[in-house]
Request: fold
Amino acid sequence: MESTRRQFFAASAGALAVSQSLQGAGLTAKDVLERIQKNVGVPWRVETVDTIKSGSLDTPVTGIATTMMATLDVCQKAAAAGKNFVITHEPTFYAHEDKTDAIQDDPVYRFKQDFLNKNKMVVMRFHDHWHAHKPDGIFTGMTEQLGWTKNVDPQNARQFIFDGLSLSDLAGQIKGKLGIKAMRVVGDPKLPIRKVAANWGYAGGFRGFTRSDIDALIVGESREWEMVEYAADAITSGQKKALIILGHIPSEQGGMKYCAEWLKGFIPEVPIEFVPAVEPFWTPGA
Ligand SMILES: [Zn+2]
Reply:
């Protein structure tokens, strides 16, 4: 039986995955991973952070939760909703590579890992390949969530064109559409905005702000002693520009909401749901 299966597998991996699940024989985490690899439209990288962070590929999948960040809160909500496979854009264990050797005795890591083990959950990261998907899955989802499809610059999908609304109005519109509690803005609130560049997620260094053809740069997060200091100096030196800092989670969350819809197109056997990661910040008086 096993050798017959293996031959069949070698002959047609995709067909086997589909036939197994259509029989209801139990979609495994491995089946889901293989379907993503087959449908993402770019070759799967050898060096990638898109790997299994917890659990085993043999696990039968009861449901899939996509999320921007697999926080403990998200994992608990996914488990409560009967979804034991979490697909996360950002790390699970507090570092880009999710290395856990040095934190085995850390109480927070331990609590989370024990919860995942006890509930037989699988967590997989889907970062590199979702960005490599054409078009970039995060950009597609964020553009949709903001309702900015009509504003996309025909020259560059990472830029948006506006009619000169004020920085204050633009920031307010973003805050409302993304439901952000604690976003931060650098620049004159009355500054008219015509061209905006977006760097969803983390923006390292300050080069993203050096372009003279944009009125505002939107980022998820950046270092206050790099990009933010450069932006402050650019404005003090007379440049008419602005920096809008959303927070990392709201700056990419729409992309993982869209990911749930994308997965439904080729994984019909189990329920798939987007579980939002909660914005961690609040501000007094807000
Ligand atoms: Zn990202």
Summary: Residues 76 and 115 are 8 Å apart (CA to CA).
